[in-house]
């Protein structure tokens, strides 16, 4: 049997065992929980959901049951219900840090990043050594401009009667007051040090075959995901005479893009996420010269391993739009727009600037044609955003509402996985209603495979970029589908301004604005000149295809030159 078949056989045996134990000990919470967990691990999602639900209803103060039940609800796109389960549990269970962290996760998926940040803070106050919570907390700070009084009061009201938790919420809100760029960068560096992310004396040898330098890309996102898209063109174009390329991932076969990446590299190394020391040893055994992190503080990251140093040179690229806070991360790949020189002081990493965009874009083969401008047939302008719900901050809702008020007949299409939950849609309708926008002007769509997502742009005239967290691949896909994106220039130092970089690369710098007033004025002006917008749409794909961002071969040469500079600096050689 293969390793996968052995694992499945072992899981089925364990499930049979717990089934027998359940007959003997029907009232044991631990046995019932383990039975539900094994159902989940063996892919029996509906049965697992039912078992977790029954266990939670019987023992709502049993933290593991609440977390398991919420996790299964999330997999069934019931994000708001998951939040409600964990809100009930957090006031009853002694497992406060674990439930607070799970509640933060559910709130993020329900589009409540501000509230999530409060609960991540509570989880951290109970356990600052949980690397997953630290990363979730730091990543969420990028999406939030403030903890609004309304958010704080709403959370506090839901905890009425639990004075201790209410006091803790207010304590977190005070700690997170004024989420400026400098404050968020400081949190990144502070928590990285607190977790023991410090320089040590280990250096991999970096010994390679004559004339070849070993580089390794490390990420859990090498599938149909922005990171996978960024890496796609690079691994195909690496100069194999000079570079020996490794990829490290927690799976060997996830989707078509995974397979494409796997066939494009010499070495695909499988990592066991549950064995961190084993993963550390496995990567070090490959004797890399350069280790490239493509996750930052996003889910499934390996920063705890980078903190212990995997290679003489460690570089962050493409996975996180800010500093990692790790002083063992030597460099970050950037460009003059995404990371201006004035922001360098905010980074733990030294910038490796490329001449154009800091990423490249491989045009999706399955992309349909952009089609004509929808407004010419509908009679009204349709704005759109296909960014994740957690990016749609209160500041974003207020800004976009101004546009909808200024262009009275316009509509807004929001498309993201979070909108698979009808209750999330209701919540966003209510947020827009509070700004005076009729619900009939806002429509929602949930998750779609990439080809269907691209087709949805045929219904959009202009894309809107959220604040403060700019879009990345979302902007690139929109441009490829002929839809320009309105972007508000970032005003928080220490954050990669990727949307601005992408627009500049394609020659649409006049769609970047320094103030909300300019942003709003552009939306109004474009709505009054549909002919010009239609002309832009008709030629935008060709314009993008001819730009540097779609030159994956040239980009890879520039990226390799940056790697070479970093390696020479490490080796103490003079850089030409």
Please give the structural blueprint.
Blueprint (H helix, E strand, L loop, with lengths): L2 H22 L4 H13 L3 H14 L4 H13 L3 H12 L5 H14 L3 H14 L4 H11 L7 H10 L4 H13 L5 H14 L18 E6 L7 H12 L5 E7 L6 H7 L4 E4 L5 H10 L4 E4 L9 H4 L6 E4 L14 E4 L15 E4 L21 H4 L3 E4 L8 H13 L4 E5 L6 H12 L8 E4 L4 H7 L5 E3 L8 H8 L4 E4 L9 H9 L5 E2 L2 H12 L2 H16 L6 H20 L5
Parallel strand pairs: 1-2, 1-4, 2-3, 4-5, 5-6, 6-7, 8-9, 8-11, 9-10, 11-12, 12-13
Keywords:
single chain, 576 residues, alpha/beta, Serine Threonine Protein Phosphatase 5, Tetratricopeptide repeat, Rossmann fold, 3 domains, six-stranded parallel beta sheet, 24 helices, globular
Structure write-up:
By secondary structure, the protein is an alpha/beta fold. It has three domains: 60-194, Tetratricopeptide repeat domain (Serine Threonine Protein Phosphatase 5, Tetratricopeptide repeat), CATH 1.25.40; 213-360 and 552-571, Rossmann fold (3-Layer(aba) Sandwich); 375-549, Glycogen Phosphorylase B (Rossmann fold, 3-Layer(aba) Sandwich). It has 24 helices and 13 strands. The protein has helices at 3-24, 29-41, 45-58, 63-75, 79-90, 96-109, 113-126, 131-141, 149-158, 163-175, 181-194, 226-237, 256-262, 276-285, 303-306, 375-378, 394-406, 422-433, 450-456, 473-480, 498-506, 516-527, 530-545, 552-571; strands at 213-218, 243-249, 267-270, 290-293, 313-316, 331-334, 350-353, 382-385, 411-415, 442-445, 462-464, 485-488, 512-513. β8 (382-385), α17 and β9 form a beta-alpha-beta unit. The longest helix is centred in the N-terminal third of the chain and has 22 residues, at 3-24. The protein starts with a helix and ends in a 5-residue tail after the last helix. The relative contact order is 0.09.
